[in-house]
Design brief:
The structure holds four protein chains of four kinds. Chain B has a single domain, classed as ABC transporter involved in vitamin B12 uptake, BtuC (Orthogonal Bundle), CATH 1.10.3470. Chain B has 17 helices and six strands. In chain B, helix 6 crosses helix 13 and helix 7 runs antiparallel to helix 8. Chain C is of the alpha/beta class. Chain C contains eleven helices and twelve strands. In chain C, the strands form two sheets. A six-stranded parallel sheet of chain C has the order 2-1-3-4-5-11, sandwiched between helices. In chain C, strands 7-6-8-9-10-12 form a six-stranded mixed sheet, sandwiched between helices. In chain D, the strands form three sheets. Chain D has a two-stranded antiparallel ribbon. In chain D, strands 3-6 form a two-stranded antiparallel ribbon. A two-stranded antiparallel ribbon of chain D has the order 4-5. In chain D, strand 4 and strand 5 form a beta hairpin. The longest helix of chain D is centred in the C-terminal third of the chain and has 27 residues. Classes of the chains: A alpha/beta, B mainly alpha, C alpha/beta, D mainly alpha. Chains in contact: A-B, A-D, B-C, B-D, C-D. The interface between B and D is large, with 49 and 43 residues.
Chain lengths: 505, 339, 330, 350
């Protein structure tokens, strides 16, 4: 890449107002053909808003957008697509009940006098997927595939439109590293074809690996545009946060005392398993330790957590709690025993969108207390305000509906829900996904402070570095099977990777 | 970060107005219908004292809204969990029929309170049946309650195929009596509303119901027994329908298995929706449903009082309903704000 | 496959169980029959009833069922739940079952021609009860045994004209909009009062043939017209009974301050007349069983029947009501 | 992240069931099995009543042709995640409109007496179909552009359309025309039975609906909207247009039902089809279409209509049930059926 790359899209002093808020304040932004341009900023900096303005989801309240030097005013995402701007979102925006092939070609199916040519469509879809090095059955429902595959399908769809500009809004947040590499290969290929790519991600490694140029936003304002190779990481973070990195890097203990092995186990799984979910496994969770679960997406991490929390019924084995066999057939049972589970799918399984922050915080605690012993309004507000302060949740007040908060802040509210329960054992499934660096560090700190209080935490994350940093013990999963447990000094990224990658069981 | 907190995360859903504002449009619609009558229907607002109680069209509106208001209270909670109960009309018939039969039949001759409790009991049983089907067998609510909707009138006819006259004076008081000059039915509605309101405010039931309606999976993961909550609301809806059935039987001094509660389910659903509760579940407003019931009854009474021709009745009703709902629709309001 | 057979059995046992229950149910109405019981024994007769929307209707059903039992007729009874489509299906089913005769209580006047042609092609005679139909080809049915709704309305109107000496402000409680009795009773009454210029219908709305709606409608009338109302004409007794309650609750005396006239002659109406609250009712006799099976016998033995047998409707006033109330069957 | 990551090749997860059965097909299969069981049971139980015959089987479709037609329209609506409660009243409305147009009566509008000419049945049918589609379209517009709940709009629509029918005429109107005689004499013999025009119209519409749902962009867009409306918008599909059209299509289908109703009976009735909307919804849901949208099929709906017909026919043929027991039996069979289907689908799935 070089400075001579022609400017493909230019946004000039784009402004977007929401009731009472300036979401984008005269932001300038430009994307060049044949370049990967990273858009960086914390949660709520205005990245998503900018993208939605570019794709016509929101009408802009001021400024100009030029595409190939001509002013455009996209009215809908469909319109933007016609103009040449395709978007892939973080949450897969496809139709899970339709086939993979249909999802790629929906709206532009090959037809013959108005009749959809299914065979041709399926063949085209297979070709499109194989261009991304994915050989899957395109005639199966999209919903039967993992999120990662669904993401790839979304990219296949976006690329196939013959777009000039491809916007990838946090496409990697649910991909494992292998898939990320596949994606990057595709991105490089597209780049060489002269496509402009706008790339949004929270993973600094990825930004530095793939992007040519970085634009940083903060609080709806442009901080600046930089060439990636000229911007050191620390400086990038400082620009995003508006404060020095050191303030949140310190205080992260690298490891907790390893004498946790001596403490009695809270929970023991004995040959616990469920068909099509996870092969029978043994697992112990002890007081005051962080047990990491590592493995690729779909390796059985979430399934393990669901079994331990009583969401799914195991068809083999048993769970022992404090040495006694326990019957757990619902989350309510698990909560009654002092367990908590912060699920990976925040939108579908976490938040109650229309309810307030306050109500979302107290929900699990109230459920465990039963419906008769109701917290007074005052007590509720007290509790909610405590966590808003403790977790630094950005919200106007405790009575704001949670759907009005940004993703990261919703995640913190959910954490607060479980912390309010004061659980002995907390399962955190991807608690840091899609949230910014500062919040991530906050959560990691929180995990450590929990186990210092003698609580047990099960930590599931796709970021190995995070798992390594936080865990006393790591269980590695592969192909729906627990393959190894690492303790003490064994815990490092290399070992985990090697375990995951080894082909024999 | 404050930027994010105020910006709507999901643009398609407009920000919901604060709770107190939800009532604004229904109340305005009600006031509009009353204002229309004030201007064009002479005597509509005329209230006099006859035989020691108040008498007038407005009193009729309050009194005749009671069955829809009662079933509407139950329906509100059902709709708040994202469901719907089509069986309230037939449950009314079953409860009314059983109560009057137990009191009047020579075989039983039960006392009025026991007979009423039996009627309420069977209504509750109907509600529990619905609740089990929806909550535990997990049948879609429309279909689950359709079963009792279809067969319920048959059950009422089995209890007794005849119109039963209720001679009991204390029983007649429930629907025809007056308290402080106002129909006793109003007192029943207020009582039920207060009990439910207190239960929802002073216990966590309201919170749980809204959670289940808004995001059932998340509610379950948070440890709420969503099946039980569903069982609870359908049972309660059955109970409310039972009260309504007894009130109607008492008002007519007669139990009619064929016609009691005919089409009440539609009026009840309308009342709830006009009152600002979304059919998708989640946030609900009990007062709103009462206002909705009053709107429907005010409309009916207006149509009758003004002597609208029979064949035009339904058209007028439909136009008013669409009008009220349009008034509440944010999209429609925006249309006028721009001008 | 076990589960399947189990479920099939379940379905079957439900059907069997319920039908058994019905057979053991005692007939609640007994009727006096004039015909011989021999001739119709063993015949298969289909009866397509409208539904069970009122006491009057169930009395009619019971009359026909018990008469069938008495005469040893194998009666196939189908309740159409108020829908003509179901009645048409029932007629087709009767044809498929090769019944010897069909009794039909039609829900509406029109819409029968095509299906009755099929029935005629199968050479099955049709006896219409309680309501007539509107067909060009009169050979499509054997006979009609019915009350004349128009005449009922006219009788009520004539009586009221006499009673009030041609001067009255009338409110009318109509039946369910679109129902044949509602249309005809409205028409007949209007004809009767047409010749009396001082008899006016000042309000007319539906009470849906039931007590609750009749009461609510009357309440509204009383509010808007008040003392202006001198008479109520209700298309059936149930609505009249509801109206009587509304009048009482308004502090007036039904039967004296406001004259109440209705049609049907159910038991509760007679009681109200005895109590002096209802002034008169025109009886619409539902006990059509004996006459219907007499017609079945006649038709199946090849006799010609008059196209129309009008059941004589009688008008009852208060003083007569006291005499006959003990002998009322329904 | 790390270099080793490059070596990791993604392996797609194994599919839980061996046959390549798509999730959609399971309820369809279950419905078919239960339908077959129900029919067999009814045939055995009612064998001496002549239940098992071709003409009775064909009558399932002819007597319920208008139910089938409304159900097809309703399937599209439900697939898109909506609901249409106005279909029943639409039948009464179109039938009375056709009858009125063929037998006009002078009426007064703003103090002018207007007399319409006598229309040819085909013209009347055309007007009725256009009117039905238009009423559906208006409901669609209210739902889509004012974001009102479909349940509510179509409930008001049900009142409104029924009201319009009553305004046209409270009493039923008989119709006659040589064309009608020809139409009812028309029959294609099949063995001992024959197929008449209601079945033919139903079959044609059903086949077109299957074609629309499977092979047109419009049809696939409906599935997409029901699957996830938000995604469908982001994917650039014409969501607004399609949703409005769906309600117009449902209006058209139920208006066509009304046409069949009028032609098969030579009569128009404002009360015709009242309450049919719930039968229709039951048929669609029994046919395996989810009320939440996105999953289901026209074929399933046809099976659902068949099941509702068999239940009704079995009770009619049984012929000794009292009114009360007939109602309870319909409810009980509905219950048994739904639970059975539930068990079968969950078994097939695991």
């Amino acid at each position: 890449m070089n400075a001579t790359n022609p400017i493909l899209l230019q946004a000039m002093s784009v402004t977007k107002l929401f009731p009472g808020v300036v979401a984008l304040d005269a932001v300038n932004f430009s994307a060049r053909a044949g370049e990967v341009h990273a858009l960086m900023g914390e949660n709520g900096a205005g990245k998503s808003t900018l993208i939605k303005v570019l794709t016509g989801f929101y009408p802009r309240d001021g400024g100009q957008i030029l595409l190939d030097g001509k002013e455009i005013r996209p009215k809908t995402p469909a319109h933007a697509q016609q103009l040449g701007i395709s978007t892939v979102y973080q949450e897969v925006n496809l139709i899970p009940t339709l086939t993979v092939a249909e999802n790629i070609y929906l709206g532009r199916e090959p037809t013959f006098f108005g009749k959809i040519r299914w065979r041709r469509l399926n063949r085209l879809a297979e070709q499109a997927m194989s261009r991304l090095n994915l050989h899957i059955d395109v005639k199966r429902d999209l919903g039967s595939y993992s999120i990662a595959i669904q993401q790839m399908v979304a990219i296949a769809r976006a690329v196939d439109v013959k777009a000039k500009l491809l916007i990838l809004d946090e496409p990697t947040s649910s991909l494992d590293s292998g898939e990320v590499q596949q994606l990057f290969a595709i991105m490089r290929q597209l780049k060489s074809l002269g496509l402009g790519i706008i790339f949004v991600s929270h993973f600094l490694d990825q930004i530095y690996e793939i992007s040519d140029r970085i634009t940083v936003l903060r609080n709806g304002k442009l901080v600046g545009e930089y060439l990636t190779r000229e911007l050191p990481r620390v400086e990038l973070i400082t620009k995003m946060m508006g404060r020095e990195l050191a303030t949140f890097e310190t205080g992260l203990a690298t490891s907790v005392a390893s004498d946790s092995d001596l403490k009695p186990p809270i929970l023991e799984a004995k040959r616990l398993g469920k068909r099509n979910a996870i092969e029978p496994f043994d697992l112990e969770v002890r007081q005051g330790e962080v047990l990491g679960l590592a493995g690729l997406l779909g390796s059985g991490r979430t399934e393990t957590a669901r079994l331990l929390f009583g969401i799914d019924r195991p068809d083999k084995g048993e769970i022992q709690i404090d040495g006694e066999r326990a019957r757990m057939i619902s989350p309510a049972d698990a909560i009654a025993r002092g367990f908590g589970f912060c699920s990976e799918d925040r939108k579908a399984q976490g938040i109650i969108p229309d309810l307030t922050v306050r109500e979302n915080v107290i929900l699990a605690l109230q459920a465990s207390k039963g419906w008769l012993r109701f917290f007074s309004r005052r007590k509720q507000t007290e509790l909610a305000n405590h966590y808003i302060k403790a977790l630094n949740i950005a919200t106007r007040d405790a009575d704001t509906p949670i759907k009005n908060l940004s993703g990261g802040n919703q995640q913190k509210v959910l954490l607060a829900r479980w912390l309010a329960l004061d659980p002995r054992f907390l399962i955190l499934d991807e608690p840091t996904r899609g949230i910014d660096v500062g919040a991530k560090a906050d959560i990691q700190k929180l995990i450590l402070s929990l186990c210092q209080q003698g609580k047990a935490v099960m930590f599931i994350s796709s970021e190995l570095e995070e798992v390594v940093r936080c865990s006393n013990r790591v269980a590695v999963l592969r192909d729906r099977r627990k393959v190894r447990e690492l303790t003490g000094a064994e815990i490092n990224e290399h070992n985990i990777m090697a375990t995951i990658a080894r082909s024999d069981a | 970060m404050t930027v994010a907190s105020a910006a709507p995360a999901t643009p398609k859903q407009p920000r919901r107005a604060p709770r107190s504002l939800v009532l604004l449009w229904p109340v305005l619609a009600l006031l509009f219908i009353l204002a229309f009558n004030l201007a064009f229907t002479p005597g509509f607002f005329h209230v006099e004292v006859k035989q020691g109680h108040l008498f007038g069209s407005l009193i009729d509106v309050l009194k005749n809204a009671a069955p829809v208001a009662l079933t509407g209270i139950g329906m509100t909670l059902v709709i708040a969990t994202g469901g719907v109960d089509l069986s309230v009309g037939t449950v009314m018939a079953i409860a009314g029929q059983l109560t009057v039969l137990l009191m009047e039949s020579e075989h039983y001759h039960w006392s009025m309170p026991t007979a009423c409790f039996a009627g309420l009991g069977v209504a509750l049983a109907c509600g529990i049946w619905n609740g089990i089907l929806v909550g535990y067998v997990q049948i879609q609510p429309i279909v689950a309650t359709l079963i009792l909707f279809v067969s319920g009138r048959g059950i009422a006819e089995l209890i007794s195929n005849d119109n039963l006259t209720a001679h009991s004076v204390p029983f007649q008081y429930l629907g025809r009596g007056f308290l402080f000059g106002l129909p006793f039915q109003i007192a029943i509605v207020i009582f039920v509303l207060l009990v439910v309101g207190l239960l929802m405010r002073r216990t966590a039931a309201g919170l749980f119901i809204e959670s289940v309606g808004n995001n059932p999976v998340a509610a379950r993961f948070a440890g709420i027994n969503e099946r039980f909550i569903k069982l609870l609301v359908y049972s309660f809806s059955g109970l409310c329908a039972g009260i309504a059935g007894i009130v109607v039987a008492s008002n007519n001094a007669n139990a009619d298995p064929h016609n009691t509660g005919l089409n009440v389910e539609l009026d009840a659903i309308l009342a709830v929706v006009i009152g600002g509760t979304s059919l998708l579940g989640g946030r609900y407003s009990l007062i709103g449903s009462i206002v909705g019931a009053l709107i429907i009854q005010a409309m009916d009474t207006t149509i009758l009082t003004r002597g609208v021709a029979v064949e035009w009745t339904l058209v007028v009703k439909a136009v008013v309903v669409v009008g009220v709902c349009l008034l509440q629709a944010p999209k429609f309001q925006r249309l006028f704000r721009r001008k | 496959m076990n589960k399947f057979t189990l479920s099939a059995l379940l379905v079957l046992s439900l059907v069997v169980g319920c039908s058994k229950h019905d057979e053991t149910k005692p007939a609640s109405v007994t009727t006096q029959s004039s015909a011989s019981t021999e001739s119709s024994a063993g015949k298969v007769v289909g009866f397509s009833q409208i539904g069970a929307e009122s006491t009057w209707r169930t009395a009619e059903t019971d009359s026909i069922k018990s008469e069938a039992q008495k005469r040893g007729v194998d009666l196939r009874f189908v309740d159409a739940q108020g829908k003509q489509e179901n009645q048409i299906k029932a007629l087709r089913a009767f044809v498929a079952q090769h019944v010897q005769a069909i009794i039909l209580a039609p829900v509406v006047e029109t819409g029968w021609e095509p299906v009755l042609k099929e029935v005629k092609a199968a050479k099955i005679p049709v006896i219409l009860v309680d309501r007539g139909i509107d067909v060009k080809d009169e050979s499509l049915y054997a006979t009609l045994i019915a009350s004349d709704f128009v005449a009922e309305g006219k009788m009520a109107g004539d009586w009221l004209a006499k009673k009030t000496e041609g001067k009255a402000n009338i409110v009318e409680l109509q039946g369910t909009p679109g129902a044949a009795p509602a249309n005809d009773r409205k028409k007949g009454f209007a004809e009767a009062i047409a010749s009396h210029p001082d008899m006016k219908i000042i309000k007319s709305q539906t009470g849906n043939f039931n007590r609750n709606d009749g009461k609510a409608t009357m309440e509204a009338f009383l509010k808007s017209e008040g003392k202006n109302i001198t008479a109520v004409y209700a298309h059936n007794d149930d609505m009249a009974l509801g109206a009587i309650q509304a009048i009482e609750e308004a502090g007036m005396k039904p039967g004296k301050d406001i004259i109440v006239v209705s049609i049907d002659g159910v038991h509760d109406a007679f009681q109200a007349m005895v109590d002096g609250k209802l002034n008169c009712t025109v009886e619409c006799n539902p006990l059509l069983g004996p006459a219907a099976f007499d017609a079945v016998d006649a038709v199946t033995s090849g006799k010609e029947l008059p196209k129309k047998t009008i059941v004589k409707d009688e008008l009852f006033e208060q003083d007569k009501a006291k005499e006959v109330i003990g002998s009322r069957k329904y | 992240m790390t270099e080793q990551a490059n070596q990791l090749v993604y392996a797609p997860p194994r599919h839980p069931w061996r046959f390549r059965l798509r999730a959609q097909h399971i309820p369809l299969l279950a419905t078919f099995v239960v339908c077959l069981m129900l029919y067999t049971a009814a045939c055995i139980y009612l064998r001496d009543r002549g239940f098992f015959s071709l003409s009775v089987f064909i009558s399932f479709f002819s007597d319920n042709a208008f139910l089938g037609l409304t159900a097809i329209g309703m399937t599209f609506v439900i697939l898109s995640g909506g609901i249409d409660l106005s279909v029943g009243s639409m039948i009464g409305f179109t039938s009375i409109l056709i009858a009125r147009l063929m037998n006009p009566e002078p009426f007064t509008l703003f103090h002018h007496t207007i007399t319409l000419p006598v229309f040819h049945p085909l013209v009347a049918i055309g007007v009725a179909l256009i009117a039905g589609s238009f009423l559906g379209l208006i409901q669609g517009v209210l739902i889509q552009f004012f974001e009102l709940a479909p349940f509510l709009v179509t409930l008001a629509g049900m009142f409104f359309i029924h009201g319009l029918a009553q305004v046209i005429s409270l009493s039923s109107i008989g119709i006659e025309h040589p064309l009608l005689d020809k139409l009812s004499d028309f029959a294609i013999p099949i063995g001992s039975a024959s197929v008449r025009f209601p079945e033919i119209v139903f079959a044609v519409v059903a086949l077109s609906a299957i074609y629309i749902s499977r092979y047109t962009k419009f049809g696939r867009t409906i599935y997409a909207i029901g699957g996830n409306e938000q995604s469908a918008i982001l994917m650039g599909l014409p969501v607004a247009r399609t949703k409005v059209l769906i309600y117009a299509l449902s209006g058209f289908c139920s208006a066509l039902g009304g046409v069949i109703y009028a032609l098969a009976k030579w009569s128009g009735q404002s009360e015709g089809g009242l309450g049919l909307e719930l039968d229709t919804i039951a048929a669609v849901v029994i046919g395996g279409t989810l009320l939440t949208g996105g999953l289901g099929s026209i074929l399933g709906t046809i099976l659902g209509v068949l099941i509702v017909s068999i239940i009704q026919a079995a009770i009619i043929f049984q012929g000794t049930l009292s009114s009360s027991w007939a109602r309870i039996m319909i409810g009980a069979l509905l219950f048994v059926f739904i639970v059975l289907q539930k068990i079968l689908s969950s078994r097939a799935r695991s």
